Amino acid sequence: MPELATLGWDDRLSSLYEPYAGDDVVPGRVSIQHRGAYDVLTELGELRCDVPRRLVHEAEATADLPAVGDWVVVAPRPAEKTGTITRVLPRRTTFSRKTAWQAAEEQVLAANVDVAFLVTSLNEDLNLRRLERYLTLAWESGAQPVIVLTKSDLHPVPEAALAEVGVIAYGVPVHAISSVTGEGLESIRAHLGPGRTAVLLGSSGVGKSTLVNTLAGAELLATQEIRGDGKGRHTTTRRELVELPGGGLVIDTPGIRELQLWIADDGIDEAFEDVTELFSRCRFSDCAHDREPGCAVRAAIADGTLAAERWESYVKLLGEIAHLERKLDRRAAAEARRQWKALGQEARANMRLKGRRE
């Protein structure tokens, strides 16, 4: 049975839990999300927990419901190894994306993480534009992003790849590792420790589950061998919080085919710090960075200080965020109209009822 401190419990969580504490409840941390149920780690052991309708109805959005990494209040049934989640404690950090379908809804991939390992492999998977997208959401989450370049043993010059990624990784550690040779693994362990939580995010087959198993020194997660073309066969089908024997926790996630941005106004500024700091050097404060004289952005592109592809990536991601915000504003306005209409209908119905009584 885990001690809460090893799962990341601290004084902040103790004070958040205090209003709900009692003999009939215990705190716990969500380790796996199933359809309609959750596995929760508690000092009573792992409990399979359901969520009452009250909690579902109180949630303003799906993102308010429990997610892997969340701390929750549980009414346990120890004899059955089950329980009911009665409350989700406020999150310290949240790694979210827009749902892959059309609706503008937030999907929480991991909660209460300290480090976001952004994992990509050096066997043809390296894509700087994709990494910029991951970095934007990682900075927005509140966690510390760390770029992990796996399968360095398959790359002829891993140092060149490190330098290439370093150009876009402002304030972000970048590590090249190999689970085969052990290269770079100590640098990954340095980001972990007792009570610290990391989430692994990346495309399918980049070696996330293999990395977890290597760090744990045991086959905790199912993996498959690398194919002849150097690509892994992805097997992770769910998000799962795993305790490491040496201290620390990691959340493994399924391969992400499409990472759509959620609201990330602060995250994009952090991820593109080299771009945004140019804005203050423009001659005009309202510079559109197009053809205006004295534009520091256009000058940086012209002299090679700023890659045109990086500027285009920034503009594209900024456009996605703006489009999402407009969509959310329209949805909020439509919901407000719906509520006012419902109130009006209720008021008219009450007036008709009152008239009949008189």
Automatic annotation (TrEMBL):
Its cofactor is Zn(2+). Its EC number is 3.6.1.-. Residues 111-257 form the EngC GTPase domain. One of its GO terms (biological process) is ribosomal small subunit biogenesis. GO terms for cellular component: cytoplasm. Binds 1 zinc ion per subunit. Belongs to the TRAFAC class YlqF/YawG GTPase family. RsgA subfamily. One of several proteins that assist in the late maturation steps of the functional core of the 30S ribosomal subunit. Helps release RbfA from mature subunits. May play a role in the assembly of ribosomal proteins into the subunit. Circularly permuted GTPase that catalyzes slow GTP hydrolysis, GTPase activity is stimulated by the 30S ribosomal subunit. HAMAP family: GTPase_RsgA. This is Small ribosomal subunit biogenesis GTPase RsgA. It comes from Gaiella occulta. The lineage of its organism: Bacteria, Bacillati, Actinomycetota, Thermoleophilia, Gaiellales.
